[in-house]
Amino acid sequence: MRFAAPAGATPLDPDEMGGLKFGHITTRAELDALEHANITEGLRWLARRRRGDILNDAFIRTLHKRLFGGVWDWAGTYRRREKNIGVAPYQISMQLHMLLGDAHLWAKDRTFEPLEAGARFHHRLVQIHPFPNGNGRHARIAADIYLSDHFDHAPIEWASGFDLQADNARREAYLAALRAADAGDIDPLLEFVAGNGGAARQTFSVTSAIEMSPSPARRTGPNYETAKQKAHHG
Question: What predicted TM-score, i.e. pTM, was given to this entire model?
Answer without folding.
Answer: 0.83
